[in-house]
Amino acid sequence: MTEPTTDQAVPSAGGPPRGRVVTLRKKQSRRPVAPPGSTGPLLRTEGLTRHFKIGGGLHRHTLHAVDDVSLSIGAGEIVALVGESGSGKSTIARLLAKIYRPTAGEIFLQGRRLSAIRSRADLLAYRSDVPMVFQDPFSSINPVFRVSHGIERSLKLHRPDLSRAERKAEAIRIFEVVGLTPGTDVLERFPHELSGGQRQRVGFAQALAMRPKLILADEPVSMLDVSIRIGLLNLMTKLRDEEGVSILYITHDIASARYIADRIVVMYAGHIAESGPVEDVLARPRHPYTQLLVSAVPDPRAELSVAADTDRGEPPRVIDPTPGCRFRWRCPLAIEICHQVTPPLLELLPDHSAACHVATADAELKAFG
Asked: Does the pTM of the predicted model rise above 0.90?
């Protein structure tokens, strides 16, 4: 079975492909209106923090994976969480999935504190509302069983009102929603008989079987060939537009974030550096780190060159960090206060915030080209 024909090639960073170039452009927003009677965001965090103890004895230290993160996700919205490796993106996903417990801070789902969850039934209900799709599609599927095993087990656990026949019919419907057609045929296959893109679609199908409010998608396309990534990105927009599911899309690829996201949150060294509507943030980035990410997006039409000012500084210090901006060692605009005070996340424009001492609403400061 081949990958669905909706999957199109995406230009690689190595240069323009032969023939027609497929350019990823931001689609017109088709976000559904929030359900009647709903107030506030679907999910939000306040001061979310996660530290890890490393080493032992006299060499015991604290790794600050996530520090004081406050973000929100609305109903029927795709929020992209962007940043380089080690920025804390996946840790946030695992905190929201209740795989990790927060060191400090709180998570709210539709206004309810998650710290109030005590019973197994409440925990199961939360994980039904907020399932996770992992980076490696093969790791979330048992290779011993046919792919029908996982989704039917999920339906039995999270939707016990369905009969055996109804579970089978629902599994077929969900597989066809995510582009695995014919559903009856794909359900009978083993994981090794599917391509990487199809296995990742099975992961989305298993999440969709729970009738979720929010899907946590942790780097869902990073392990796939560039020729099929666009199909998964289109699937996420379809789930938002047709199924009304919100998605937290975690990625290091700022170009794909622009393609599908409504809002973007840029992470650096465990802190939020900048957040706002995706077009506003990428068109006029305020934080120097966001400018660095945008400048690093390859343009197939440009000549190959290496900008000297983008390769500077050192990796972020997240083990026993001192006060101050964690990007200061790489930032050409850093001033004295950047080395002494951690900048708060402040709104510079409507719905557009940045954590930077030198960023302002009016000044067009450019740290990177």
From this structure: no
